[in-house]
Amino acid sequence: MEKRRHGLKKGLKPAQVLVLGFAGTILLGALLLMLPISSIDGRITPFVDAFFTSTSAVCVTGLVVVDTGTYWSTFGKVVIMLLIQIGGLGFMTMATSIAIILGKKISLRNRLIMQEALNQFSISGVIRLTRYIIMMTLGIELAGAILLSFRFIPEFGLGKGIFYSIFHSISAFCNAGFDIMGNGVSLTKYVSDPLVSLVIMALIIVGGLGFSVIVDLFRVKSMKRLTLHTKLVLSMTGTMILIGFASVLIFEMNNPDTLGNLKLGGKILAALFHSITPRTAGFNTLDMAHLTLPTVLITILFMFVGGSPGSTAGGIKTTTFGTLVLKVISVIKGVDDVEFAHRRISKDTVNRALAVFFIAVFVVISVTVALAITEKDVSFEYVIFESMSAFGTVGLSLGLTPYLSIAGKVVISAAMFFGRLGPLTIVLALSNRDLSKKKLIRYPEGKVIVG
């Protein structure tokens, strides 16, 4: 009886609060998008389509079952934009920001939830970090919108141009990939436009670095004084962009449906854009349906890795992948410790990375199998691409999304939700384990042959 009372006092765990908070935001968004005022023709949107769109927006994915630019009214687009902003920052960040503005005291419990939401090592400084996040986000998105307005205002007019600039700046920084160009063209008509492409790419990269990394870069004047986390994020991000750029340039150089007919500058710009966008952004300047198979495979791998912890991006995260690569290197070298930048990465971190990786693989396989069952006569390439895009909260598609069955929409919605919150957060929310308690008994060591 005493245990039960103690359990009730403890309430929900931080991971459970995050899961329920995101779920509540998604449901509210779905109800708003169902309203006749949300669609252009004034009809009530079916719950499944509204729920899918709301999930995609809150989970900053970008997969859509109806065309965002032509189906939704201005009200509907504003709702989607706000859902993207809430999803990108996290609902706890938004709630904490409102509390700070109102001058309310932030409780220890809320600080613990913020620590979980922002992937911080301790609760120290999470409120200060929250302030930085809000200011940086608004500043970066405003800068992006101003730069995009130089292209969109002359093209669409003052009012529409400003709205387009704000919408796409928020969508890019939050790595959402939603666009309102209409007819599913995304940013393909700007494939050779340096202004739009470079601004969108910059917003995607900055949004995918993680807020703690951005703060670290602003605070520290010398690269040597950056934290180990920041150094690993920057190293993995730069490496993946270069590998992706080279791969797309090689595999698509002579493809007449993608890079083949572009000038050299356009080829470089388009290849760089496609190298960056699978990092959970979802915009595309190349026709996804006409990519060569090697490029599709590279894109799938990049979607699985995603962005960095504490960012608006999804995937297993660059640091997770980087830690596993470093572990493999240490095994090959015969070194016990995983080392990077003259620092040792703890075994707990390596174990956590392994857990994230294998849970993610299990989820992707499960979603792929489920889609293979629900979507008849669809090739495996389309199914695995859709599954990975949903889990990585990317939003890229080879064209399957609008034709998903009701069951397929539910499966993809679940994958987006799982991908946004992260494998470990979901698992911890469902488990009753107290991570603060460690096992005191160790069994004798045995030998297992592997490899």
Strand order of the largest sheet: 1-2
Q: What's the main sheet like?
A: 2 strands, antiparallel
Tally of individual helices: 19
Enumerate the spans where pLDDT stays under 50 for 5 or more consecutive residues.
1-9
How would you sum up the global shape?
globular
Q: Determine Rg (CA atoms, Å).
A: 22 Å
Residue share in helices?
A: 55-70%
Which band does the percent of strand residues land in? Answer: under 5%
Q: How many DSSP-defined strands?
A: 2
- For the record, the count of structural domains works out to 1
Give the integer mean of the pLDDT values: 85
Kindly report how far apart the N and C termini lie.
50 Å
Order of SSEs: HHHHHHHHHHHHHHHEEHHHH
Q: What is the compact description of this entry?
A:
With 451 residues, this protein is mainly alpha-helical. It is built from 19 helices and two strands.
Give structural notes:
It is a single chain. 63% of the residues lie in helices and 1% in strands. It has 451 residues and is mainly α. The protein has one domain. The chain has a two-stranded antiparallel sheet with strand order 1-2. It starts with a helix and ends in a 21-residue tail after the last helix. Mean pLDDT is 85; it is low at 1-9.
Provide key terms for this protein.
mainly alpha
Helix and strand topology:
Blueprint: H1 2-10, H2 14-34, H3 47-58, H4 68-71, H5 74-89, H6 91-101, H7 108-117, H8 126-156, H9 158-173, H10 194-209, H11 211-219, H12 228-252, H13 264-276, H14 293-305, H15 318-333, E1 338-340, E2 343-345, H16 347-374, H17 380-391, H18 406-421, H19 423-430
Antiparallel strand pairs: 1-2
Helix pairs in contact: 2-3, 2-5, 2-7, 2-19, 3-5, 3-18, 5-9, 6-8, 8-9, 8-10, 9-10, 10-13, 12-13, 12-14, 14-17, 15-16, 16-17, 16-18, 17-18
